[in-house]
Design brief:
single chain, mainly alpha, Preprotein translocase SecY subunit, 3 strands, 70% helix, globular, SecY, transmembrane, transport, SecY_dom_sf
């Protein structure tokens, strides 16, 4: 069984690399996207057959579309920091100074779905370990971290917010945007290059990450409240699946748009 699972995983990874090389977007993400979407008809059909709660299923569908709209909104939201570049051009026997302006996009949700994966993995681990020890203390611990209990989702919300800040700040430190701006002759108007620029960008990033972190936390715990609000226990939302679907769809659309622009570009020589 283990050998067959490893072989199947390696085959899917190989297919994903082929899709990435010869297709559009990230191949592994597209395979995961296809697996999530392929389960929807079966789950929805079973829910209609096993329950007579048409109103609850309709309300759940409305919630789902609302969550998808919010995910797209926060995924595309960004803070544009103005940046100016100055360069020297030798023209007419003398050196002239030219300047250009652009912006530095800082995304509100730059962590994506990674905080949710970290949070759910950490929350599940203690309960799994405690389930191997049969005593009143471990049984109480397991019951408190059951997915149907409120402490489980409260801990998920806190961990998602923490991991969003952690992942965003670590990624920002690795990019070294302030150093790259200084090396390329760019600067933010009113901010000195170097360390002041780094502090300013960090302050702006922390401020906008609060919105992304709280949004991801709400999306993570939303299935718990939506399930109880609609009273449809056989059909539940999966926040991680929705984030993966929306992220892959947006990335594929960008890839298609880039390919269309490249193929329709005529160039200078006809």
């Amino acid at each position: 069984m283990v050998i067959s699972m490893i072989a199947g995983t390696m085959f899917l990874v190989w297919l994903g690399e082929l899709i990435t090389e010869r297709g559009l977007g990230n191949g592994i993400s597209l395979i995961i996207f296809g697996g999530i979407v392929a389960r929807f008809p079966q789950v929805i059909g079973q829910s209609f057959l096993n329950t007579n709660q048409g109103a609850g299923i309709l309300l759940l569908a409305v919630f789902t579309f609302g969550v998808i709209y919010a995910i797209v909104l926060f995924t595309e939201a960004q803070r544009r920091v103005p940046v100016q570049y100055g360069r020297s051009v030798f023209r007419g026997g003398r050196m002239q100074r030219q300047s250009g302006s652009t912006f530095l996009p800082l995304r509100v949700n730059s962590a994506g779905m990674i905080p949710l994966i970290f949070a759910f993995s950490i929350v599940i681990l203690p309960g799994t370990i405690a389930s191997y020890f049969r005593n009143p203390l471990s049984d109480g611990f397991v019951s408190s971290l059951d997915p149907s209990a409120f402490p489980y989702w409260a801990l998920v919300f806190v961990l998602v917010v923490i991991f969003t800040f952690f992942y965003t700040l670590v990624t920002f430190q690795q990019q070294d945007l302030a150093g790259n701006l200084q090396r390329n002759g760019g600067f933010i108007p009113g901010i000195r290059p170097g360390e002041p620029t780094r502090e300013y960008l960090t302050r702006v990033l922390v401020r906008i990450t609060w919105g992304g972190a709280l949004f991801l936390g709400i999306v993570a715990i939303l299935p718990f409240f939506v399930t109880y609000a609609t009273d449809v226990r056989s059909l539940t939302l999966s926040s991680t699946s929705l984030l993966i679907m929306v992220g892959v769809a947006l990335d594929t659309m960008r890839q298609l748009e880039a390919q269309l622009l490249m193929r329709n570009y005529e160039g200078f020589i006809r």
